[in-house]
Amino acid sequence: MLQEATGETAMHYLFDRTPIEPVQVFDNLFYIGTISVAQFIVRTSEGLIMIDSGWDEQDADYAAASMKKLGLSPADTRYILLTHGHSDHYGGAQFFKDKYAPQAKVGINIIDSNWYSVIPAENAFADMRPQIDIELNDRRPGQPHPFVIGQEKYRQYEDVFRKMAQDAIGKYQK
């Protein structure tokens, strides 16, 4: 259906890095992503929180430019929270941190953080893995859980890939 209507396949959209115009979604939530990867900025009393970081340095630079376009300073980013351990979500984190917000702490759930340790170093995306400063561990399988930053809570929902990562970790640690 999609291919008939547009001439494109669904796989095309998974890797489409065309920027989407940054927008203030509401109050303190901003969208700064591309067609293939949603990125959000949450403005808090403690600074900015980036949710996901895109594929790589190009996406990190686009995120910074988008933030500036919205009147936000990339240097005010205090946390870069990664929703899960796929390279299209973590790939830009270290680039963004190093170039724009060296004080920012990078956080990911403990399952994906542990998963990094069992993926072979020769994996194609291994060099893009960020240094993890915070392991988020208040997860309950199948239930929403909060990211807690100061007094503010943010929710994320379980996905199938976390379960796969957890199974893989158990398999390799035996």
Describe the 3D structure.
The protein is α/β, with parallel strands linked by helices and 174 residues long. It has a single domain (2-173), classed as Metallo-beta-lactamase, Chain A, CATH 3.60.15.10. 33% of the residues lie in helices and 24% in strands. It is built from 7 helices and 9 strands. It has a 7-stranded mixed beta sheet with strand order 1-2-3-4-5-6-7. It has a two-stranded antiparallel ribbon with strand order 8-9. Helix 3 (57-69) packs across helix 5. The chain is globular, with a radius of gyration of 16 Å. Residues 156-165 and 167-174 have low confidence and may be disordered. This is Metallo-beta-lactamase superfamily protein. Residues 37-103 form the Metallo-beta-lactamase domain. It comes from Selenomonas ruminantium. InterPro entries: Metallo-B-lactamas, RibonucZ/Hydroxyglut_hydro.
